[in-house]
Specification:
Layout: H1 3-27, H2 32-41, H3 45-51, H4 67-70
């Protein structure tokens, strides 16, 4: 396998891991955008997410960037 083939293979693995990470995060009631991004960068994190327990309660949400401005 040449260099281009390795890059393409890693790209497909990263896209698959990001997709699987988003689905698993939704099932486990986690912040899916966080897990999609990190599973794309580090595909083995899908295994870590698989081992995490399901989060009870509302799905955690990070405040938006303009959240402090809304208080005024």
């Amino acid at each position: 396998m040449d260099l281009v083939g390795g890059i393409v293979t890693w790209g497909f693995i990263a896209l698959g891991a990001a997709t699987l990470g988003g689905i698993l995060a939704g099932v486990k009631n986690r912040d899916y955008s966080f897990w999609i991004a990190w599973c794309f960068v580090l595909p083995p994190l899908v295994l870590f997410l698989l081992l995490l327990p399901r989060f009870d309660g509302p799905r955690p949400r990070r405040p938006s960037l303009d959240h402090p401005e809304r208080l005024w």
